[in-house]
């Protein structure tokens, strides 16, 4: 059975649709589609308005939008390593020196697609088998709820249920997870280079498929039905505590 996020979403009060990252063979299953203009640079988050309209972004090795997405989603080398390091360090100042950036690049690993197409857009239940991650676009209050939710079933001995690693915004949607089979979440939309594509009060919370399934099991006996959340909602509504 597919997990049912209804109880979670009702308590979150989410205004954006859940956005799935899919590795799938059939574009027709994700229609209506949008794509970057060929040979034109476009951040994947520039398509968020299309997501809100129910459309799905298709990426391929031939049409990936920007060099970062080409590298981290498909393993393409869109510029030399030396130029890449100079751009990130000397041009954008993202690490203290070249050596640290070199180490970060050595540690990172691009996503390895299983199919010719990657899709990013509103979740489609019929394509659940091809789902790799789910992204919640949230405000700070909703982010706090989801962080608590990700920790709800976690033992101190488990891998960290929530991480916020350094990387490009598109990396936070899949490549920065070491293992997509582990229940884990990334606090995303932290890349300044893509922040201007989103409203200023919106962050991302991307979860692996196992973490999404965990979140969907959180029930009425949890914090979602307890006083802390009720008081938060009352405060935001301007009601007396």
Plain-language structure description:
This protein has 241 residues and is an alpha+beta fold. The protein has one domain. 31% of the residues lie in helices and 16% in strands. The protein contains nine helices and eight strands. An eight-stranded mixed β-sheet has the order 2-3-4-1-5-8-7-6. Helix 2 links the parallel strand 2 (33-34) and strand 3. The longest helix is centred in the middle third of the chain and has 12 residues, at 140-151. It starts with 5 loop residues before the first helix and ends in a 5-residue tail after the last helix.
Q: What's the rounded overall pLDDT mean?
A: 94
- The geometry reads as globular
Distance separating the two termini: 40 Å
What proportion of the residues is helical, as a percent range? 25-40%
Sketch the topology as an H/E string, one letter per element: HEEHEHHHEEHEEHEHH
Return the structural class: alpha+beta
Largest sheet: 8 strands, mixed
State the total count of DSSP E strands.
Answer: 8
Instruction: Count the domains.
Output: 1
């Amino acid at each position: 059975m597919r997990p049912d996020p209804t109880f979670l979403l009702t308590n979150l009060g989410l205004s954006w649709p859940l956005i799935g990252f899919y590795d799938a063979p059939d574009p027709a299953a994700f229609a209506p589609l949008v794509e970057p203009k060929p040979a034109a640079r476009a951040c994947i988050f520039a398509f968020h308005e299309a997501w809100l309209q129910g459309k799905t972004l298709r990426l391929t090795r031939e049409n990936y939008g920007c060099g970062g997405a080409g590298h981290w989603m498909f393993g393409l080398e869109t510029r030399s390593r030396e130029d890449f390091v100079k751009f990130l360090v000397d041009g954008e100042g993202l690490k203290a020196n070249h050596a640290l950036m070199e180490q970060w690049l050595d540690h990172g690993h691009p996503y390895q697609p299983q199919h010719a197409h990657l899709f990013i857009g509103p979740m489609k239940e019929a394509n659940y088998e091809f789902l790799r991650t789910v992204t919640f676009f949230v405000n700070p209050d909703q982010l706090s709820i989801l962080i608590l939710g990700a920790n709800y079933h976690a033992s101190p001995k488990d891998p960290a249920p929530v991480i916020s690693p350094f990387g490009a915004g598109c990396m936070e949607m899949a490549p920065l997870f070491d293992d997509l089979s582990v229940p884990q979440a990334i606090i995303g939309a932290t890349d300044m280079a893509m922040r201007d594509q989103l409203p200023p009060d919106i962050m991302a919370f991307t979860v692996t498929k196992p973490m999404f399934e965990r979140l969907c099991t959180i029930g009425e006996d949890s914090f979602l039905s307890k006083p802390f959340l009720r008081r938060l909602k009352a405060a935001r509504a301007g009601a007396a505590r």
